[in-house]
Write a structure and sequence with these properties.
Elements (H helix, E strand, L loop, with lengths): L7 H8 L3 H8 L8 H14 L5 H8 L4 E7 L10 H14 L5 E7 L4 H8 L6 E5 L7 H6 L5 E4 L11 E4 L1 H14 L5 E4 L6 H16 L9 E2 L5 H12 L7 E4 L2 H13 L9 E6 L12 E4 L2 H18 L6 E4 L2 E3 L20
Parallel strand pairs: 1-2, 1-3, 3-4, 4-5, 5-11, 6-7, 6-8, 8-9, 9-10
Antiparallel strand pairs: 10-12
Length: 354
């Protein structure tokens, strides 16, 4: 005779709680109870071998218990080689899975709004995290009219104030970084920018220019190079900057990957970092403290941003409410060995100070 499968009532009796409490815990509504109550429920679930009929429960509520992680694959971008995207995804999964949600990665390669809608509204996903959409992306009008919860990560659009987004204040963070370099005595500061159509790149370039203008430093057009966040673009951009006369005393990578490429270009050109040129970045990826020298950079908590995105999606699903507006995450300057105060080389004279 086969053993009867345990029911939710069996779990409730074993844990000494109500069936409603068991149901809420299984649905991830753990903020309603003390941690010891939640732990008691899960211990009873494991002890009895209870397996909720996830499919039936999801169908009854019209849910799949799946969160979508959506990215646009422009210019051959590869998720596994993009440290920003990979770190955000790690945080997203870290929160979603213990709360009993699967994660579906959706890579979009089209700019057709109808194809976007078809990919995002096929009924397999309950809510969406939209990773760093570019300007004029079909993601933006789709989000403005979305019927399911969503959150953008790594892009925010001032002219779309109702879109729920998680990002750093890129413009102000870059402004503060440039001001810090100026305080270190640097005046000739090169900048390796990111993609022309990406909000973060536009905002960081704006912060760079504003900081120099506020310091009374005239910006030279040739100080701004590059058009992507990548090691290769960092190397090419730094080579252009090193060829200038006089060359910059500091180089900013619009992202850490660009800054690491710039350090490589400096060493290949026989230019010591930070002895002759300081190099700084933005993001604080895992490789930043491992470079030689370790990279000074602006840290934005990418992993935590991914976790927060999953949390906001699940909270919206559970409460059946919608959140709006940008959420700005604080950044922090991390000083390491790749930057130092500017001191002119004595043989070149005092004119090299500026």
């Amino acid at each position: 005779m086969s053993r009867k499968k345990p029911t939710i009532g069996d779990v409730a009796r074993h844990a000494g709680v109500s069936t409603a409490t068991v149901s809420n815990v299984l649905h991830g509504k753990t903020d309603l109870y003390a941690p010891e109550t939640e732990d008691r429920v899960w211990r009873s679930v494991r002890a009895l071998g209870y397996r909720p009929n996830q499919l039936a429960r999801s169908l009854a509520r019209g849910l799949t218990h799946t969160l979508g992680f959506v990215l646009e694959r422009h210019h051959g971008m590869r998720l596994t080689r993009n440290p920003y995207a990979a770190t955000v995804l790690d945080g997203f999964i870290e929160y979603a899975v213990p709360h009993h949600y699967q994660v579906k990665i959706i890579a979009l390669t089209t700019e057709d709004p109808n194809e976007y809608a078809a990919a995002l509204e096929d009924g397999t996903v309950d809510a969406f995290a939209l990773l760093a959409p570019v300007q004029n992306s079909p993601m933006i009008p789709w989000a403005s009219n979305a019927t399911k919860p969503y959150v953008m990560i790594g892009s925010w659009f001032p002219d779309e104030p109702t879109i729920l987004s998680i990002d750093s204040d890129n413009e102000q963070a870059m402004y503060d970084l440039v001001q810090w370099l100026i305080g270190q005595g640097h005046r000739r500061i090169g900048f390796i920018r990111g993609p022309y159509n990406h909000p973060s790149a536009i905002q960081r370039l704006s912060g760079y220019k504003r900081a120099l203008a506020d310091a009374g430093v005239q910006i030279r057009e040739e100080w701004v190079v590059g058009e992507a966040y990548s090691m290769e673009e960092g190397q090419k951009g730094a080579q252009k900057l090193l060829a200038l006369e006089p060359r910059p005393t500091a180089i900013i990578g619009g992202a850490d990957v660009s800054a690491l490429g710039a350090i490589e270009a400096c060493w290949m050109s026989g230019v010591p970092v930070p002895g002759e040129v300081s190099v700084v970045g933005f993001d604080d990826i895992e490789a930043a403290p491992l470079s030689q020298p370790a990279l000074t950079t602006v840290r934005q908590p990418m992993y935590e941003m991914g976790m927060l995105a999953a949390q906001l999606l699940i909270e919206q699903l559970q409460s059946e409410t919608r959140l709006t507006g940008p959420i700005m995450i604080p950044t922090e300057l991390i000083e390491r060995g790749s930057a130092r105060p500017w001191e002119p080389i004595a043989s070149k004279g005092a004119a090299e100070i500026r």
